TrEMBL record:
Its EC number is 1.14.-.-. It comes from the Bacteria. Catalyzes oxygen-dependent 5-hydroxyuridine (ho5U) modification at position 34 in tRNAs. Coiled coil: none annotated. PROSITE patterns: RHODANESE_3. This is tRNA uridine(34) hydroxylase. It comes from Endobacterium cereale. The lineage of its organism: Bacteria, Pseudomonadati, Pseudomonadota, Alphaproteobacteria, Hyphomicrobiales.
Length: 314
């Protein structure tokens, strides 16, 4: 077996195996692969999302151990993805409603032309060496994720750009001349893919010593013991688990299905929280008409649950 096929399993337990993956490659035939790949996932009981584009593949999927193993082998059998790496965690219940294979212009949307991580990229730093780098006073540490993600967890001392989308990141960099004040730039994201483009962009903008966390926060939380960790909080994940913690154990956050923001157990007790309708993050920005529409949707979800079904809006 190859190294990619024998990644250590996290301590977290659960009936479903979750695989986060991405790979940048010239994938000119991506459109022709969509339907066969969708069919393969459906046949193997796999759910989640895979984005495919001319620049490669990105996504997170869940299923049985055997089903995920078959999918990874299927992808690595494609010449473009022979070097595909993935990260594993577990979920106590299926964290996705359905399977979607989507055609995209970019597998992670930055919106900057001619960014090619296969041509230029920052220096990868293994999780075991990350603490030393970000503790260096000559390093500026940047979180490349969006504000709803950084709200529940961040590395100690990191700069938070407070972006709503990754498209805002290039302008944030260009408008922050202070980033040139220190020689080293260290960057991180959930699983590593955003940093592939973010570090490529930074190098293109003239920054020389640019580093990024290999495997992202997920790999760090898997490999670095909690007592040695410089991570504070939980890591937002894009599935129904909402967050994971050290050892990739499922976190305690819920998701507000009105605004898609993660919320804590304390926020659930807020008078502004109503399941599927509002939370303290979105209550003041929604109208009563919005809330009425969300309540109707939530009623349909409850009725579907009573019938033993899962409403796709849930």
């Amino acid at each position: 077996m190859t190294e990619n096929q024998t990644l250590p399993r996290p301590e977290a337990t659960g009936a479903f195996l979750v695989a986060a993956l991405y790979h940048f490659a010239r994938f000119e035939r991506f459109e022709s692969v969509q339907k066969p790949l969708q069919a393969f996932c459906d046949e193997n009981g796999i759910k989640g999302t895979l984005l495919i584009a001319r620049e490669g593949i990105n996504g997170t999927v869940a299923g049985t151990d055997a089903g995920i193993a078959r999918l990874l082998a299927h992808l690595r059998a494609m010449p473009e993805f022979s070097g595909l790496e993935h990260k594993e965690s577990r979920a106590s219940k299926m964290p996705f409603v359905r399977m979607k294979v989507k055609l995209k212009k970019e597998i992670v949307t930055m919106g900057v032309e001619d960014i090619d991580p296969n041509r230029i990229v920052g220096t990868y730093v293994d999780p075991k060496d990350w603490n030393a780098l970000i503790s260096d006073p000559e390093t500026i540490l940047i979180d490349t994720r969006n504000d709803y993600e950084t709200a529940i967890g961040i590395f100690k001392g990191a700069v938070d750009p407070n972006t709503k989308t990754f498209r805002e990141f290039p302008d944030w960099v260009r408008n922050n001349t202070g980033l040139h004040n220190k020689p080293k730039i260290a960057m991180y994201c959930t699983g590593g893919i955003r940093c592939e483009k973010a570090t490529a962009f930074m190098k293109q903008e003239g920054f020389e010593d640019v580093y990024h966390l290999k495997g992202g926060i997920l790999k760090y939380l898997e490999e670095v013991p909690a007592e040695e960790s410089l991570w504070e909080g939980a890591c937002f994940v894009f599935d129904e688990r909402v967050s994971v913690e050290h050892g990739l154990k499922e976190g305690n956050h819920k998701l507000c299905h009105a605004c898609r923001n993660p919320i804590t157990a304390e926020e659930v007790t807020s008078e502004k929280y109503e399941e599927g309708v509002s939370c303290s993050n979105c209550y003041d920005s929604r109208t009563e008409e919005d809330r009425l529409r969300y309540r109707q949707r939530q009623l349909q979800i409850a009725l579907a649950k009573k019938r033993g079904q899962k409403h796709i809006g849930g």
